[in-house]
Amino acid sequence: MRLIVTSVIRRSLAGEPTGLLFAIDRSVPRVVRTYAVPPPLYLEHNLNPRGGLRGGRGVSVCGDRIYVANASHVWAYDAHWRLTQCITHPSCANIHGILAKEDRLWVTSTRNGLCCEFSQTGEMRDYFDYRQYEDICRRIGVESDTAKGLGRKSVLSGDVDFRDPRTHRLEVSDAVHLNGLCFLPNGDMLLSFGQCNAWQRTPLLGSTKKVFAELHGHPLISRTRQVMATMCNNYEDPRTGYVADLFKARSAVVRVRGGVAHSVPLLHDGAIMPNHDLVPKSDGTVLRSDTNAKCVICFDPCTGVVLKRIEIGGKFVRGMALLSEDTVVVGAQNEIAVVDIVKREVRGRLRLTQDQRVAVFDIGIVPEEFEPFPDSLQS
Length: 379
Prior knowledge:
Layout: E1 2-9, E2 20-25, E3 30-36, E4 59-62, E5 65-69, E6 74-77, E7 83-87, E8 95-101, E9 104-109, E10 114-119, E11 124-129, H1 134-140, H2 152-157, H3 170-173, E12 178-183, E13 189-196, H4 202-214, H5 219-231, H6 244-247, E14 249-257, E15 260-271, E16 276-280, E17 286-290, E18 295-299, E19 306-311, E20 317-324, E21 327-332, E22 335-340, E23 345-351, E24 358-366
Antiparallel strand pairs: 1-2, 1-24, 2-3, 4-5, 5-6, 6-7, 8-9, 9-10, 10-11, 12-13, 13-14, 14-15, 16-17, 17-18, 18-19, 20-21, 21-22, 22-23
């Protein structure tokens, strides 16, 4: 079995790639090829050295196609690793999770909280905007002012280029960090709202981060958090070291039926960083990366009951692919871990690189009919 793994390089330097794509042969196991991820559009205007627009993003496999994304583009490769398509749109930016199914491609646009639907020709046909549903917004803890949403004509025509950070206020447009999706057997779609910030709090936090970025002061953030922790009775979240009282938010999973928001089957308070990934199993349950708790949970999408919790460890749990009904491979910073779902234990790990700046983003399983990994990939 072969895997392809996308990643982000935190604080990548000038002249370095901002992310790597690892080609893995699990039968060995080892990394057999490493490719640089092409930089996204407008990277020079993104000041966040930790992540921002950097690196590789979602991976999806459908039939004889593999789709790989960065923050602004999705590339499609055939079984010969030939580039067959390149998809980009002004309303689809800071791409995270993607999903190809039949003749459609769904892309989560984190920059503006949209889930965009593209045709097989790369045309944006439709999208989902949570802002249209007051009850859902109330459940997840954000405002439902539809004026903050975008009109359908504006979104489809790309009137605002969200790929360019200079065109909008991130602290307003990215209030839920929509970063993943999956489909259930009955056709319902689940969306991962990684970190839902109340509108009244987000501008303050966003402005603070922007000031640090403009002063190139991100290395000072760690020290600043320590000082703030002292001011807050030294209360830091033991999982992350962040000051939980000031930075915690809510993570959610939203269920969409027939293009309409239906329910919120899963809510998690105290998310200091975004949670990620939604992977359905044939028994109707769904796997989700709890990045905050460094674990994978298995939950019932109808009742929201968490059925299993599997500790993964590592600095940053993100990226997941189902190898079998009992086995899943999970990203953990610069490693991938093979996890036994039934026994709830990690069976093995593979370090992709010694570079601790590298963080896995997503994982895809390469179909058997695909040719061996090429020396380079077109983009």
